[in-house]
Amino acid sequence: MKKLSLILVFSLVMLVNTKFVQATGENTPEIKSESAVMIDAKTGDILYQKNSSEQMYPASITKIITGILAIESGKLDESVVISSDAVRAEGTRVYLMEGEQVPLKKLVQGLLINSGNDAAVAIAEYLAGDVDSFADEMNAFAEKVGAENTHFVNPNGLFDEEHYTTAEDMAKITQYAMQNEEFREIVSTKELPWVGEGWETTLRNHHQLLWDYPGTIGVKNGYVDESKHTLVTAVSRDNMDVIIVTLKAPTSRAAYWDTMALGDYGFANFERKTLTAGTEIEALNGDTYPLKEDLAVTLPKGEEPVQEVNSDGELQLKDANGNVLLTHTLFKEKEKEATTTVDSKSVEEVDSTFMQSVVKAGIFLYSGLLLLLAFLVILRMRSQKHKHKKMRQVARSYVK
Asked: Coiled-coil stretches, from where to where (predicted)?
């Protein structure tokens, strides 16, 4: 675990760099979880945060990373032989048997629906050879998606002081994972028949809000004594998709109530604004540039994004408080200068090209005339030579 002073410094830096949108005119909910964040799943804009950059123990929401890595491996149809280490995993299990052969996809389902710790170990061993090597892959993945204050040592979230994350990092990880259709399908599954050598049952998804909160589409809950109750939830409703992370809630009930309170707050106070491709944006010099793609930001309802174009050709979309929500390159200044230079010299270049063409045509015609004249001179000389020869022949005939 890093020292507390380093954590505080990092938290301050993250707070400064955060794309945070605050709704006005509405009281934000009071929640019991020690850390939480809510983001728009499409834009990544933060709609609510509480200690979102503070390091916490994740418990079983760790399995979100294990699951997406397994899915992206491209090996879901392959068969995994269960090891003795997987069978001996502590905590919640799907009761795998040593030597049992299980498709990787089925292990992912047991991992994400029933929170099987044994399935997590089996996945790690199959994909990376051992748990430690798989943890390295998890950390590389976290870095790739921008989860910079996260470190994993196992695939299931069992407690370790060096196994930690933040609410903001888990939101980024989940935002990435939820873009995968296979992942979305698995975490949204409420019940699944399970037939294994050691257990035959119907798995029931541990995420209770799939039944209790309209629009919920997953993803994962967790608990160990040191982390208390952790919960990651994706909700889609009213043209809005949000991801809510609550960490270290005192009870399971508190985690669920906090999540629903944040969801209600988000859907009541925010909406996504989109500038469509082709929209003309005016730069500082008065020139306009069309957007080549749709740009979306999330703002309090009734608020429009503030557009600013700087001298470098970057369009910034800001909220009413001046927070930059999105930066998009409209044009590159060097390219603009080059274009302007070409425009200012276009007339001169046209005149120069025309004159060059005239000169070339004159030279061609003059050369042609010289060749024609030379040809005529040669013909005349040959004609005269022939005439003189004939006259000499006639003169000789008279002499005889």
From this structure: none
Residue (of 342, 345, 282) closest to 315 by Cα position: 282
Tell me if residue 115 is catalytic. yes
CB 229 within 8 A of CB 249: yes
Is 63 among the catalytic positions?
yes
Sheet holding 324-329, edge to edge: 306-309, 314-318, 324-329
The answer to whether the pTM exceeds 0.85 is no
d(CA 245, CA 35): 8
Given a cut of 50, is residue 15 above it in pLDDT? no
* Measured distance between the N- and C-terminal CA atoms of the chain, rounded to whole angstroms: 135
Do 268 and 26 meet the contact criterion of CB atoms below 8 Å apart? yes
Provide mean pLDDT across the span 305-323. Answer: 84
Of 33, 53, 63, 220, catalytic: 63
Q: Which of 33, 52, 53, 115 is catalytic?
A: 115
For 206, the token pair is: 């541990």
- Tell me the pLDDT band of 334, cut-offs 50, 70 and 90: low
d(CA 106, CA 114): 11
